[in-house]
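Table S2 (text version). Query chain:
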Amino acid sequence: MSSKGRFIVVEGLEGAGKSTAVACIKTWLEQQQLQVVCTREPGGTPLAEQIRQLVKQVQDETITAEAELLLMYAARVQLLRQVIEPALAEGSWVLGDRHDLSSRAYQGGGRQLGAQLIDSIRHAVLGNCRPDLTLYLDIDPAIGLERAKARGELDRIELEQLAFFQRTRQAYLTIAAAEPGIVVIDAGQELNKVQQDLIQALTDFWTSLHAPMA
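Corresponding C-alpha cell output:
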C-alpha cells in the first residue's frame, strides 16, 4: 500500500502554525521510509509563484473577489499538473501547505462568493483530484492574527478585517463537519500537544491504509 502516492494537505488561518505542522508531518512521513514532496499554495511552480506575488502584494488597484478566486485556481491547476500529479504517479507522497479547501473557506466564506461558483470552477479545473487527508489547524482568528503580526509585515490578505477571518474560519469548520477526510486540530494548544494530535491523525490514517480488506 505504501508504494502508492498519497496527498496530505495542511490548512488553517494566518498564524495557525502551518509551517511548523508541515515540518512535523514531513519528519514523520520520512520516518515511514516515504519519499515526500512539499508544495505550497498559491505557488510551487515558477508561474504559480508569480501569481502568488500578485495575490499577496498590496496593489494600487483593488483585486475583486472573483479575480482573486480565479488567480488562486490558475496557480492551483498549474501546481497540480506540473508537480502534484507527477509526484503521486511516481509513488511519492505530496505534502501541501494549503490546497482547494483554502479557496472554499477564504473566497467562499471570507469573500462571501458562496459554494456554487467555486464548485463549478473546482470541478472544471481539478476534476476528481482530492487530498487523501486534510489536517485543518483551527485557531481563534484574533490570536492567529497577533501571531502573524509578530512574524513581520502583513500581506494583502492578512490586512483584512477580523470579520473576514471569522467568516473564513466558520467556512472551514462547516466544511470539515460535513466532509470525510478532514481532521480538525486545535492549534490553540501548546505546540507539543498540537504535534501529538497531528501524529495521532497521521497514525490513524496510516493504519486505515494498511488495514486488511474485509
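Notes on Table S2: The chain has eight helices and five strands. The two ends are 16 Å apart (CA to CA).
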